[in-house]
Amino acid sequence: MTGRGATTVWHEENIKRTFEWSAGAIFAIPLNVSCQHFNVSKDEPVRLLAGTNMPHLMNLFHNEDFIFRNPFRFHDRFSNDADYFRHNKRLTVRSWETNLIQDVNAFPLDDYPMKGKGVRIMRFGIAGTTYGCHIQEFPVGSRSTFHRHGPGAIVTVTQGTGFAMVWREGEERRRFEIRPGSIYSPGDLMYHGHFNTGHTTMRHFAMRGRSPKYSQDRYRTPLHDMIPFEEEPPEIHKEYLEELAENGITEAVSVVKE
Ligand SMILES: [Fe+2]
Question: How many whole angstroms from 179 Cα to the centroid of ligand 1?
Answer without folding.
Answer: 18
